[in-house]
């Protein structure tokens, strides 16, 4: 048993060392590839980032303005609260209607159709806190702000008129939480586009680099390549200068043998 345990320990230790050596070799190869062709990754990433920046600048900016409405029941009993959740959905439908769009166009004196205005407005509700959010988008920030503010005011006025006809205990008060203060840029998101372009370019560049390395993977250029592919240890190499010098001597001898006076040519070549 001690002998078997010793063999297991030695083999396990050798396995860990081999894995560490392979990992070190692979890491060294990757670093070598990055030093050799890393400029390709950087270049492709910069090209993609620049293209994303140019594309963003060519797009027409779209601005968005948001306003929030609060929906509060007159009494906070459980039955009415559940009813408000259902009413929120009907309010969203009302805000998205053509009749409401026409009222907004008339009040704000906008030069557009109801379909065009509806395509610029996005309504959402939150049943957890009884709120409705109106978001308007347009290439003109002032128009976006005007649409959102006007629609909210019209809807509040409409609900106030409806409440006048209801019992005070059954009323549902709709009010503006905050008026529209400013319009923010919605698209294009230039910073995000450039970041995505850089990341995408770096990935494409890395693919190109490793594809080039794969094409040249069978070419032996250094003693390390021989040891990796063949498994033999390199004992020595022939310097490039020696090989070139030997080649020049061989060519001189060949020209001498082909000369009409070979012995004289050889004599001159040997001096």
How would the blueprint of this fold be written?
Blueprint: H1 2-58, E1 62-73, H2 78-95, H3 98-108, H4 114-120, E2 121-126, E3 131-138, H5 141-164, E4 172-178, E5 184-187, H6 190-215, H7 223-229, H8 240-257, H9 262-270
Antiparallel strand pairs: 1-3, 1-4, 1-5, 2-3
Helix pairs in contact: 1-6, 3-4, 3-5, 8-9
Structure commentary:
With 271 residues, the chain is α+β, with helices and mostly antiparallel strands. The protein has three domains: 13-59 and 191-224, no CATH class; 62-187, EIF_2_alpha (Alpha-Beta Plaits); 238-270. The protein contains nine helices and five strands. The protein has helices at 2-58, 78-95, 98-108, 114-120, 141-164, 190-215, 223-229, 240-257, 262-270; strands at residues 62-73, 121-126, 131-138, 172-178, 184-187. Strands 1, 2, 3, 4 and 5 form a five-stranded antiparallel sheet that branches. Strand 2 and strand 3 (131-138) form a beta hairpin. The two termini are 77 Å apart. Mean pLDDT is 79; it is low at 262-271.
């Amino acid at each position: 048993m001690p002998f078997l345990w010793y063999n297991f320990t030695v083999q396990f230790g050798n396995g860990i060392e081999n894995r560490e050596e392979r990992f070190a070799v692979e890491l060294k190869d990757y670093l070598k590839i990055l030093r050799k062709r890393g400029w390709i990754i950087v270049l492709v990433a910069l090209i993609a980032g620049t293209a994303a920046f140019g594309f963003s600048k060519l797009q027409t900016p779209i601005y968005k303005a948001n306003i929030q409405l609060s929906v509060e029941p007159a009494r906070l009993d459980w039955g009415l609260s559940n009813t408000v959740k259902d009413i929120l959905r009907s309010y969203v439908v009302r805000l998205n209607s053509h009749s409401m769009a026409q009222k907004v166009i008339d009040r704000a004196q906008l030069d557009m159709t109801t379909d065009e205005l509806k395509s610029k407005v996005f309504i959402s509700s939150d049943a957890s806190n009884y709120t409705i959010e109106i978001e308007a988008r347009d290439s003109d920030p002032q128009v976006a702000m005007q649409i959102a503010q006007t629609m909210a005011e019209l809807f509040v006025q409409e609900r106030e008129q409806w409440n006048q006809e209801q019992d005070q205990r059954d009323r549902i008060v709709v009010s503006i939480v905050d008026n529209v203060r400013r319009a923010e840029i919605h698209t294009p998101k230039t910073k995000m586009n450039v970041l995505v372009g850089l990341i995408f370019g770096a990935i494409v560049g890395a693919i190109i680099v490793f594809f080039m390395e794969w094409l040249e993977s069978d070419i032996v250029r250094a003693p390390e390549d021989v040891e990796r592919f063949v498994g033999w240890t390199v004992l020595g190499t022939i310097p490039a200068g020696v090989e070139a010098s030997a080649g020049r001597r061989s060519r001189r001898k060949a020209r001498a043998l082909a000369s009409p006076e070979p012995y004289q040519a050889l004599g001159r070549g040997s001096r």
